[in-house]
Request: fold
Amino acid sequence: MLLSKEQLEALRGQLVVSAQAYPGEPMRHPQTMAQMAASAVIGGAAAIRVQGLADIQFTRSAVEVPVIGLFKDGHEGVFITPTVHHALAVAQSGAHIVALDGTRRERPDGKSLAQTIKAVHELSGALVMADCGSLDDALAAAEAGADLVGTTLAGYTGERPKTDGPDLELLEQIAAAGLECPLVAEGRIHTPAQARLALEAGAFAVVVGTAITHPATITSWFSDALGGGS
Ligand SMILES: CC(=O)N[C@H](C=O)[C@@H](O)[C@H](O)[C@H](O)COP(=O)(O)O
Reply:
């Protein structure tokens, strides 16, 4: 699926909503995630990020906005769209943008990030969002040809502390590097004020997941505030 430069540019300053349910959870169903995505669009989401091939297909049918797709395989090491095979499957499922691990770690198929991005570009025409965990990741991913870099993995790879909210310091660092490609803030953005701060730190667009689309976690925030019900 092709996304024009104008369509990508239209995401500047906008909210992207990530709709994901995790293995074993009651809401883990492609139609449920597509309905969640459509609801987010009504609220102002300019794009949707969604996990899993069926979820990508259902979400494409449910919304008009660009879809960022990913394919999680496992939950340790390189697990976000880890190989060329996964990346092409995401593109074939209809994602306009393929989100994939954009770290400097070795990939399970032995391909470099640059080779992976090239394969997506040449074989599908989709754009690539590199999910990074540090400034060095972002610099390398931009060099490798990523169309967007995200801070998705900051706090999850050992290179950055897991901040309570968004890693604003990292956003500022990457923004100061003046990359050619857009910088997407993602990870632990839990309030509208934090989303605003992420933009002010230099993000091109802001992805919010849990705080909008994961009721179990949102409920626990309230429940914990009341003493956990115990
Ligand atoms: C680290 C990892 O696996 N992140 C995943 C990437 O797609 C999702 O589990 C997150 O929900 C997403 O990045 C949005 O972040 P948050 O839910 O914190 O707003």
Observations:
- The longest strand covers residues 15-19.
- The CA atoms of residues 51 and 70 lie 5 Å apart.
- The domain at 11-225 is CATH 3.20.20.70 (TIM Barrel).
